[in-house]
């Protein structure tokens, strides 16, 4: 029975269309090669995104859902004095949304923390650390109107 299965498998491989063999072949000289990271962005950090100016506040992404503020503080404190470590959590479940912020006392410590933790493992997941971008200015909105400019009664 095993001999018959081996024979049919070999025969199926020989009879497969050339396109299918080329598609699943790993030895083809024309196999796909992704573009280098530097071609997709600035060569540092997240591809295709410009770097934020250096600051004492770091944005940390790729966090495990069960990562706590204490674990985040403990991991980053080996590179300097951590003033604040915050994991952004879901309001309903209380689990991490996968990102957080770490604030250091000085720029030098923040640079050491960014270099030391970027691409490292925390709670079994690879995390990424980069300088946090400042929050964009938000204009106050009138609570009586919705996004199209009308209130709930259909009047402007």
TrEMBL record:
Which segments does the entry list as coiled coil? Answer: none
Superkingdom to which the source organism belongs: Eukaryota
Q: Which InterPro entries match?
A: Nucleotide-bd_a/b_plait_sf (IPR012677), RBD_domain_sf (IPR035979), RRM_dom (IPR000504)
- GO biological process terms on file: mitochondrial mRNA modification
Q: Which UniProt keywords apply?
A: RNA-binding
Q: Where is the composition biased (Polar residues)?
A: 139-156
GO CC terms of this entry: mitochondrion
Where the record annotates domain RRM, the positions are 56-134
Q: What is this protein called?
A: RNA-binding family protein
């Amino acid at each position: 029975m095993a001999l018959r299965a081996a024979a049919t498998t070999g025969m199926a491989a020989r009879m497969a269309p050339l396109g299918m063999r080329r598609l699943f072949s790993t030895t083809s000289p024309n196999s796909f090669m992704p573009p280098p990271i530097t071609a997709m962005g600035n060569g540092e950090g997240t591809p295709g995104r410009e770097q934020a100016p250096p600051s004492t506040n770091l944005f940390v992404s790729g966090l495990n859902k069960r990562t706590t503020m204490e674990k985040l503080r403990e991991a980053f404190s080996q590179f300097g004095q951590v003033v604040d470590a915050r994991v952004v959590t879901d309001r309903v479940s209380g689990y991490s949304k996968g990102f957080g912020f770490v604030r250091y006392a000085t720029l030098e410590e923040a640079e050491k923390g960014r270099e030391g933790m970027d691409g490292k493992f925390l709670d079994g997941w690879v995390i990424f650390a980069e300088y946090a971008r400042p929050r964009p200015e938000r204009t106050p909105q009138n609570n009586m109107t919705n996004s199209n400019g009308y209130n709930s009664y259909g009047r402007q």
